[in-house]
Write a structure and sequence with these properties.
Elements (H helix, E strand, L loop, with lengths): L1 H12 L2 H8 L5 H24 L4 H20 L3 H18 L3 H22 L10 H21 L8 H6 L6 H9 L12 H9 L15 H21 L5 H4 L9 H33 L19 H6 L3 H6 L3 H12 L7 H16 L3 H29 L5 H23 L1 H5 L2 H10 L3 H17 L27 H6 L19
Helix pairs in contact: 2-3, 3-4, 3-13, 4-9, 5-6, 5-7, 6-7, 11-13, 13-19, 16-17, 17-18, 18-19, 18-22
Length: about 500
């Protein structure tokens, strides 16, 4: 026994999850194991290509279950028990109540209560680390969505939308449920994969481009995502030496000049986003290598599970553009299963319900409420300002090239500052730390919005021409086949699905 303990201790000495945090203060052992688990996806996907590809469904399901459980156990240890318990509770709900509204309500209630209780018991405001609530939050979305699809699969098709018909599921087994939740391609950090996509892949009915060996022709696309994601993760590691939480919450932070505080805060906020971009991009590449992300209708045929549109994210000129291009599969999950299904309650009620769900799904600390609710006035003001600029600058046709260039440049600069400003509560989480940072900036953006919004409504809006009423020729359904066509026209078509005065985001911004 002593010899075994010594062997384990020696192995821990060389565990990168314990070594890396010594040199990179922004990384904890749990986060390091999480990142390692993302890269493990690539050898697992390669093994699947070589040994399991096109094998019988039972072997596919067992491979995803065993490998997925091993990865999550490596990251969480015994915390994986909560994942099993959560899944089994939903399985018993399915057995007892079948494809009914009761099953949907109970599943949503049980999984969310379990998740919120986990947040209350495990959340630390000092140092964020990876605990069992991370996969639990992902499984909560999968389980609620699956029970919705299960109910749709046993509902009269005439009562369903085209999107609901496409994702409807008649029934599923316990092995399918466990494999779907634990699969290493999304069991920890996403992306959100529709059960119908997962099932068709395991059954071998999914069609995709193949190489000369009959395997998915996705290696080049996957490696590009691997390289790109690795660059962002490296930027986060090394950037932690330049921008750190201890600096912005320290009492001496206010001793610096206002300009320094403003740009340091924005840089710290932007750095926080790189870890999400890096993790999602690496995982997207693993899904590509496996072949499960194929969609022939997309320009990038292997991009159906894209987590973030990097080009749109960095070249965008508004906070709305940031939302449109960030954590896409999770965002569309919220639109499909929450916002669209509650539209009959009224647009504002549906939007409020969706926002409340999103906030609780992220956590219970006040920073989540401050960050997501602040999003509404920011985006509203952006749209109002865009109307004003468009009206007055458009009156001088000969000046348009100059004014357009100046406006776009100023908009990108303003986006950099306002995004870094608005994301601070999400990063800092507590009221004490958030107010400390905002006090150092004199609550500048809050003051500007408090002045601008009533000024626009009472003194400016009536001077502008009325906005043309948007009329939709064809109803757009958000699904795996169309949700990732990243053109501006496609985003415009979704105006009917998303609130016009505030954006329902499904952005899964867990603090890694």
């Amino acid at each position: 026994m002593w010899s075994l303990s010594r062997t384990i201790a020696e192995m821990n000495t060389y565990d990168p999850a314990l070594i890396v945090p010594v040199y990179f203060p922004a990384v904890t052992p749990g986060i390091c194991r999480l990142v390692i688990s993302l890269f493990i996806v690539y050898p697992l996907s390669y093994i699947h290509r070589e040994l399991v590809h096109r094998k019988a469904k039972i072997y596919q399901l067992l491979y995803f279950l065993v490998s997925g459980v091993a990865v999550i156990y490596y990251v969480l240890g015994r915390g994986i028990i909560h994942c099993f318990l959560n899944i089994m509770l939903v399985w018993f709900i399915k057995l007892l109540f079948g494809p009914s509204r009761t099953s949907v309500v109970l599943t949503a209630t049980v999984t969310m209560v379990y998740l919120v209780a986990g947040y209350i018991l495990t959340t630390s405001v000092e140092v964020y680390d990876v605990v069992w609530t991370m996969p639990h939050s992902i499984h909560t979305m999968k389980l609620i969505g699956l029970i919705f699809d299960y109910k749709d699969g046993n509902t009269d098709p005439t009562e369903l939308t085209e999107d609901q018909k496409k994702h409807a599921v008649k029934d599923f087994s316990l092995l399918e449920l466990l494999s779907f939740c634990f699969t290493y391609t999304g069991g920890l950090t996403g992306p959100q994969i529709a059960f119908t996509r997962f099932r068709s892949f395991c059954e071998g009915t999914m069609k995709f481009d193949t190489d000369e060996t009959g395997k998915p022709d996705s290696i080049d696309a996957a490696l590009k995502k691997l390289y790109t994601g690795s660059i962002f993760l490296a930027a986060y590691l090394f950037g932690g030496h330049l921008f750190h939480r201890d600096t912005v919450v320290s009492p001496t932070f206010h001793d610096h000049s206002l300009l320094y505080r403003l740009f340091y805060m924005s840089g710290y906020g932007q750095l926080a986003l790189t870890k999400y971009i890096g993790c999602w991009t690496v995982m997207e590449g693993g899904c590509m290598l496996l072949g499960i992300s194929y969609d022939p209708s997309l320009t990038n045929k292997w991009g159906a599970l894209q987590g973030v549109d990097i080009g749109g994210h960095f070249l965008g000129y508004s906070n709305k553009g940031f939302i449109d291009n960030f954590n896409l599969t999770t965002k569309y999950w919220f639109i499909r299963y929450l916002f669209k299904r509650t539209r009959e309650w009224g647009k504002w009620t549906s939007m409020l319900y969706t926002y409340m769900f999103i906030i609780l799904w992220h956590g219970v600390l006040p920073g989540y409420w401050l960050a997501f609710l602040f999003e509404i006035p920011v985006i509203t003001a952006e749209k109002q300002l865009a109307r004003v600029i468009s009206h007055y600058c458009g009156a001088y046709e000969s000046w348009r090239p100059i004014t357009q260039t100046l406006t776009m440049t100023a908009a990108r600069f303003a986006r950099y500052l306002t995004l870094g400003y608005g994301i601070q509560p999400f990063i800092l989480l507590t009221w004490q730390d958030t107010s400390h940072v905002y006090n150092g900036l004199y609550w500048g953006l809050h003051v500007v919005l408090a002045i601008w919004l009533p000024l626009f409504y009472f003194f400016i809006e009536h001077r502008l021409p009325p906005m043309p009423r948007y009329q939709k020729k064809n109803k757009v359904e958000v699904g795996d086949d169309d949700e990732l066509k990243k053109t501006k026209e496609h985003l415009a078509e979704q105006n009917e699905l998303e609130p016009k005065n505030g954006d329902v985001t499904g952005t899964k911004l867990k603090d890694m």
